[in-house]
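#struct-pred

JT: dropping the chains for the assembly here, can someone run the whole complex?
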Amino acid sequence: MKFDSQTYRVETDNQLGFKILIAGIAALLLSAIGYFTHSKQFFFSYLVAYTFWVSIGLGGLFFVMLSHLTGTVWGIVLRRIIESIMMALPVMAIFFIPLIFGFHDLYHWSHAEAVAEDPLLQSKAPYLNVPFFIIRTGIYFGIWYLLARKLYALSLQQDEQPTNEQIVKMRRVSGPGMVLFAVTTAFASFDWIMSLDAHWYSTIFGVYFFAGSFLGALSFLVIVSAWLHNKDILTGTITIEHYHDLGRLIFAFVIFWGYMAFSQFFLIWYANIPEETIWYQHRWTGSWNIISLFLVIGNFLIPFVLLMPRAIKRNRNKMFVLAIWILVTHWVDLFWLITPNLHHHGAHFSWMDLTLFVGMGGIFVSLFWKYLTKGALVPVKDPKLQESIQFSNA
Amino acid sequence: MSKQKVVGLLAEFPHPGALLKAAEKMREAGFQDYDCHSPFPIHGMDQAMGEKRSPLGWMVGILAFIGFTAGMTLEWWTSAVDYPLVISGKPFFSYPAYGPVAFAFMVIFGAFTAVLGMSVLNKLPRFHHPVFYSDRFAKASDDGFFVSVENTDPQFDTEKTRVFLEEIGGQHVELLLETDEEQALENE
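RK: done, full complex below.
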């Protein structure tokens, strides 16, 4: 891999992307064995891995639109990397197809006989039914695809022939895009994750899912930047000042995630209505309470304390380790949301949790890498690029 | 004619860049009690002047933690020790319910520390400063860039410092003279 610091392009024979892709496919094939031995476990593990990688892509889409709307200067050097995360998102629609075959294993409401004897499910049936569920997912991905493609195309166009118009257009797309993003992300989390326990509902659930998604995307971004730096790529472009700001954003969203998690728990705990409390009861049964406590400490307290000092935010290696830690806890967060519906009596990790995570991740990361290396690694013709490189936190 | 005391020197610089360079030279020359005045913040000025990082963040952090503890303690004392009441069948020490109050305590302690601490560190409130003896100094809120040196600086020497300020590009270098109020009125 050779990096040209004049054009900001990497010359690569794409061996790396290919290797990641092969690893991903191999892991997916291995997981397929699990489908035949224990299909219920397979689909739950699948859903955890699926929501994890979709959430990273969603966080990327959010970050791109946020950058355009706020007119960020510091974030311009990171924009192409985030855009590549965003572009890997629409392809995840393909991975939804196997899930359709797992509806009966995953979603209680998809059983006609269960609905027949359950008045609550009957009243929810106009929304929670298989055809509408699939149509909704199609709509979410349709919107995400259109937004991502438009923003990416405009950004590439800017590399060729920069005009003011592209910047204006990117902002015009991002404004309504943000609203659509909020609605689709919330409903996607309601559909995919919350409806696993169809009796239970929480209006804040979508925000909780979003908070974790953006944390995941930011951590992914830190990992990629630090890895590129390690390979002598973009060393003078993404400076320690950018890590400092990423650290602050992660810090803010760690608090935001904690705030959402506490708000959701607090109201349900206080009201103590059986149909709501049962959801937390499931997550406090057996060894699940360890996972619940782990989330409070691992996804909130530890990063909260560690990200406070300036010295850690301004240290590339420490940020790299912390980002990996947050990605792990983000995965545990989704695991904690989804898997108690399968293992009621206590937390249980399956080998498929790992293989499906690696499998889908392999596809996701190789796609990300393909988009990243397609052109320049930064928006080279952005009028504020130089300002972004020289950005300083004073 | 009463004796007037020299309390400092004031030099004007033509543009922000010149002020930044001047600040660096002042720092290199080892001055301590000097300050730069500009109508707007100048990037890099903190480094140029060699300012240390403010301890305010630590003060806010510590006080916020104390505030959190105070809120928790208050609620524990009132609802579990001093006057225990059963509320919706929950234990007396229901710490999740204390969260919002403890959070609010944390915020208010942190916010007050930030405002008051900032004032104390900046030696505020202060109603007067020698630089205001200069008539030119009014430009500092419009288009003037100034360096002021106070006589409390160990290196301060009226003549030498004046020459130094002129050497580093200062214009209209003037002495800041302390006059008592009567005399100031006479002069008007």
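JT: nice. Chain A has a mean pLDDT of 93. Chain A has one domain: 14-389.
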